[in-house]
Amino acid sequence: MHRFFVEEDYAKTITLKGKLAHHIGVVLRMTVGEELELVFDDGVIARCTLQSFEKNRVTVAAREILAQGNEPSVQVTLGQGLAKGEKMDLVVQKAVEVGATTIIPLALENSVARFDNERSQKKVERWQKIALEAAQQAKRDVIPKVEPVQDLQQALTKDYDLIIMAYEGETQVTLKDILAGQKYGKILLLIGPEGGFAEEEVELCRSKGARTVTLGSRILRTETAGIVAISCIFYEYE
Question: pTM, whole model, 2 decimals?
Answer without folding.
Answer: 0.88
